[in-house]
């Protein structure tokens, strides 16, 4: 056994023992933190994740993912070096949030639809927050200002797209990538003409290969989704308690001081240190701290801090992704690198887009009337979360299909002999 593994085997049990002692010393704080984490899971994560986890498994069993994969391959392969089914993963992830993208990618890997490196690229840019959380919980619930929702959503998803373009350079060039370059769909009119037929055949072939009746497929989809959603809930509660214990013991004071010095050195308000440090551990806590920062801090900096937290995801989300990928050969390192890049790009986009979208005020340029923004209260609504997610899923899929179908018109034709 290597020395690093021996040290790890000693440090992890020691850290867990210290947490147990702290839970005994701070029982009330531990209970309240656990209840807070459970409330976040039940009110926000369960309704936003569970329906889409079940739906995605059903669509995978019926071959819809293979159908969309064939149609979207001319778009996803040149841009991100992932198969067309990655477009479906990206759409569902945008609608339901993390860790749905990792779950679907792991399923594609199990069915041998993606290689290890393709899966790592796919997980890297499909791990994102869902719009209902950014609009309802963050903009309305934490900031009490729905006007910042467009810039948060725009910066978050644009950063995810840029991460996907950057991660296309991860790994070597596969045989499929070479084939895509040599024999691209735009090179043959016959391929374009029969793409829909090939997609339908791929769906039929996948459905025959699956072979499960609808009742069995539904049962297994619900069972698998429940297992994952319970793991997600447990991790959220665990990190909520751990963060509260670190706050109670004052162990975060040093990290706060270091973060304040870094913010002061870079010209940002040092008071945002609580948001950034909290967001390193748990995304909800970091976003809440950003919204509740002092009124003396310009709104643009608080929105940038929230964008950082949403893009990093917190160690809670990282633990969820690691648990999902543990049964595959996909590595955590590329995902960690992508999260760091996403967390760096998103705040920069907020700062760059603030003047064009907000005009230097606290309201979007298109809606400035001279009145002050109203204060809102946010109460999670399962129906609203579900229908918003379905709308985003449909919109993203339609947009990807439109670009995929239009791709032949923007590709150079092969010279006829």
UniProtKB/TrEMBL annotation:
<feature type="domain" description="Nucleoside transporter/FeoB GTPase Gate">
    <location>
        <begin position="45"/>
        <end position="117"/>
    </location>
</feature>
<keyword id="KW-1133">Transmembrane helix</keyword>
<feature type="transmembrane region" description="Helical">
    <location>
        <begin position="48"/>
        <end position="72"/>
    </location>
</feature>
<feature type="transmembrane region" description="Helical">
    <location>
        <begin position="336"/>
        <end position="357"/>
    </location>
</feature>
<feature type="transmembrane region" description="Helical">
    <location>
        <begin position="295"/>
        <end position="315"/>
    </location>
</feature>
<protein>
    <submittedName>
        <fullName>Sporulation integral membrane protein YlbJ</fullName>
    </submittedName>
</protein>
<feature type="transmembrane region" description="Helical">
    <location>
        <begin position="7"/>
        <end position="28"/>
    </location>
</feature>
<keyword id="KW-0812">Transmembrane</keyword>
<dbReference type="InterPro" id="IPR014226">
    <property type="entry name" value="Spore_IM_YlbJ"/>
</dbReference>
<feature type="transmembrane region" description="Helical">
    <location>
        <begin position="385"/>
        <end position="410"/>
    </location>
</feature>
<feature type="transmembrane region" description="Helical">
    <location>
        <begin position="122"/>
        <end position="142"/>
    </location>
</feature>
<dbReference type="Pfam" id="PF07670">
    <property type="entry name" value="Gate"/>
</dbReference>
<dbReference type="InterPro" id="IPR011642">
    <property type="entry name" value="Gate_dom"/>
</dbReference>
<keyword id="KW-0472">Membrane</keyword>
<feature type="transmembrane region" description="Helical">
    <location>
        <begin position="228"/>
        <end position="247"/>
    </location>
</feature>
